[in-house]
Amino acid sequence: MCTLSWLPLEGGYELLFSRDERHDRAPEVPAAVHDREGTTYLAPTDSQAGGHWLAVNHHGLTVALLNDDLARPPAPGAPSRGHLVRRLAGSSSAAQALGRLQEDPDLERYAGFTLFLRDTSGPARVVTVSHGALSVAEGDDLAPLSSSSLDPERARAVRGASWERLVVPAPSVEALHRFHLAAGPEGPDAFSPCMDREDAATRSLCRVQVSGDAVRLAHAIGRPDRARLPEPLVLART
Asked: How far, in Å, CA of 170 to CA of 183, rounded?
């Protein structure tokens, strides 16, 4: 259960990721600096499974994971999909990350998911994996992406309508923020971008900024309408 949006900018892009989780899920570990295969990256961590749902590295590559195909359970003993993000965070480009994903020996064992890849060399790549089958779509017009364990289609429709109202008329970084804070007529509900229901809620908001000389990640833990983004972690681009 998540919502992801992004906006291409001169020399880079801006990205926001709202993580929706069950109340009984273990707490998040704040974003920190990590290293993979000599590549430095920034990511928050899921303390329950030890993986990431989002990572951005010093090459300007962002890897993000959303649930998909919820009727497809993982195979017995399958690794957490969050560890896939950890492995791909060492890639130098979206193309390399995609190639590594295609060669992953556990591809058929994972529960279904959508993987987002974006670097500064071209538009976003959105990869859908289900039953080991992989499909790829490209384009920055694919925003926003969303998932829901309750009713995926309704969530996409509601969040899509908020996107059309808040972002499409005048796309901007500020509009992305308004979208992720959007709620229903009476406040956050089960399908609004800022979500709240009996068993789950939007747990955090991450802001990624990629420019020609640096990458930044700010991770606010808490429902986005109540939690303020902190000063970001910064890596120099190399």
From this structure: 20
The mean pLDDT value for 195-202 works out to 95
pLDDT tens string 45-68: 999 989 999 999 999 999 999 987
Which range marks the domain in which residue 48 is found? 2-236
Our count of domains for the chain comes to: 1
3-state DSSP of 54-111: EEEECCCCEEEEEECCCCCCCCCCCCCHHHHHHHHCCCCCHHHHHHHHHCCCCCCCCC
Q: Cis bond leading into 230, ω under 30°?
A: no
Quick check: 147 and 2 in contact, CB under 8 A?
yes
CATH number assigned to the domain comprising residue 18: 3.60.60.10
